[in-house]
């Protein structure tokens, strides 16, 4: 799989936000941000530019909770 060009984390957040809340299509986002629709698809489905979903808690009983999707 080819790696997409560097995309700023703020742009990633904006793409995910617009896709989730504004009802923008992947094609509309691709045109707006100058990316391919397949790259937008991979971003919104967390296949690339993954967000860190690991949560680490500390205390007497240290617990680590993690979730991996698409690995």
Please describe the topology of this protein.
Layout: H1 9-21, H2 26-33, H3 37-44, E1 55-57, E2 63-65
Antiparallel strand pairs: 1-2
Helix pairs in contact: 2-3
Description:
- This protein is mainly alpha-helical.
- The chain has one domain: 434 Repressor (Amino-terminal Domain), CATH 1.10.260.
- It has three helices and two strands.
- A two-stranded antiparallel sheet has the order 1-2.
- Helix 2 packs across helix 3.
- The longest helix has 13 residues.
- It is globular and about 25 Å long.
- The model has no long low-confidence stretch (mean pLDDT 75).
Oligomer type: single chain
Order of strands in the sheet with most strands: 1-2
Which topology does CATH recognise? Answer: 434 Repressor (Amino-terminal Domain)
Taking all Cα atoms into account, the compactness measure Rg is: 15 Å
What is the share of helical residues?
40-55%
What string, H for helix and E for strand, traces the elements in order?
Answer: HHHEE
Structural class: mainly alpha
N-to-C span: 14 Å
Supply the CATH class.
Mainly Alpha
Instruction: Let me know the largest β-sheet.
Output: 2 strands, antiparallel
Which geometry do the CA atoms define?
globular
Strand count: 2
Q: How much strand content do the residues show?
A: 5-15%
Indicate the CATH architecture: Orthogonal Bundle
Helical run tally: 3
* Number of structurally distinct domains: 1
Let me know the average pLDDT: 75
Low-confidence stretches: none
């Amino acid at each position: 799989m080819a790696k997409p060009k560097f995309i700023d984390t703020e742009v990633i957040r904006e793409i995910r936000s617009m896709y989730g809340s504004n009802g923008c299509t992947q094609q509309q986002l691709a045109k707006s941000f100058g990316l391919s629709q397949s790259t937008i698809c991979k971003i919104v489905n967390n296949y690339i530019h993954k967000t860190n979903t690991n949560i680490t808690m500390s205390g007497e009983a240290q617990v680590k909770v993690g979730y991996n999707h698409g690995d």
